[in-house]
Amino acid sequence: MRMRNKPWAKEFIEQHPEIIIPNPENYKGKWNELFGNNHPLHIEVGSGKGQFIVGMAQANPEINYIGIELYDKVIVKALEKALEAGSPPNLRLLKINAEELEKFFKKNEVQRIYLNFSDPWPKKRHAKRRLTHERFLKIYESILVDEGEIHFKTDNRGLFEYSLVSMSQYGMVLQYVSLDLHANEPEDNIRTEYEEKFSAMGQPIYRLEAKFPKK
């Protein structure tokens, strides 16, 4: 279902620069200064309505989290969730494009990237738009620490199989693969809105953890 436009979203976002950072390029290489500590930095590419990234920040105060989303009408929902949760001090949101991550993060600045229920772009001619395509893997590797990790969840079997092949061909090491995450769900699994929806419909949730090769 397409989310309705929210004409009030832009103004609401501008009222909360403490959560949605207005000039994120100023913090490239200095995110630890913004957070006021040297905790590990994890980012979610495509945070949607924010249930996952807010839940992770609440559950893991020893880790800093940044959620990335491009559209006002979507990121404003994550902003509302963050405010409802009391604005966790270890959480920030960025309204940026995933293709431009290198503008905002330096090499060795990020320890882990989460990709949750990304658009599958099922047509072959759109493969380069998939967030697990080689061109995105190169971007992720450029900002992650050595042997940095990607944690990926989806309900789409085709995208999952594609991602397994894409990451393997890139030289990444698969550390964990599940074809039905909720059949034996880990206690620390934070569900996204889509995850709850598809699970309730009986759709299996696919998940993997992979790390980049050591340089």
Give your account of this protein's structure.
This protein starts with 8 loop residues before the first helix and ends with a strand. A seven-stranded mixed sheet has the order 3-2-1-4-5-7-6, sandwiched between helices. The chain has 215 residues and is of the alpha/beta class. The longest helix has 14 residues, at 157-170. The protein is globular and about 40 Å long. It has seven helices and seven strands; from the N terminus they run ααβαβαββαβαβαβ.
Record the SSE blueprint.
Elements: H1 9-14, H2 31-35, E1 41-45, H3 51-59, E2 64-69, H4 72-84, E3 91-95, E4 110-116, H5 134-143, E5 144-154, H6 157-170, E6 173-178, H7 193-200, E7 206-211
Parallel strand pairs: 1-2, 1-4, 2-3, 4-5
Antiparallel strand pairs: 5-7, 6-7
Task: List the main descriptive attributes of the protein structure presented here.
single chain; 215 residues; alpha/beta; 7 helices; globular
* Oligomerization status of the protein chains: single chain
Q: Which bin fits the share of residues in helices?
A: 25-40%
Contiguous low-pLDDT stretches (5 residues minimum) are none
Please trace the helix and strand order, writing H or E for each element.
HHEHEHEEHEHEHE
Shape: globular
SS element count, helices: 7
Fraction in beta strands? 15-25%
Distance between the termini: 42 Å
Structural class: alpha/beta
Q: Give the strand line-up of the largest sheet.
A: 3-2-1-4-5-7-6
Major β-sheet profile: 7 strands, mixed
Instruction: Give the beta-strand count.
Output: 7
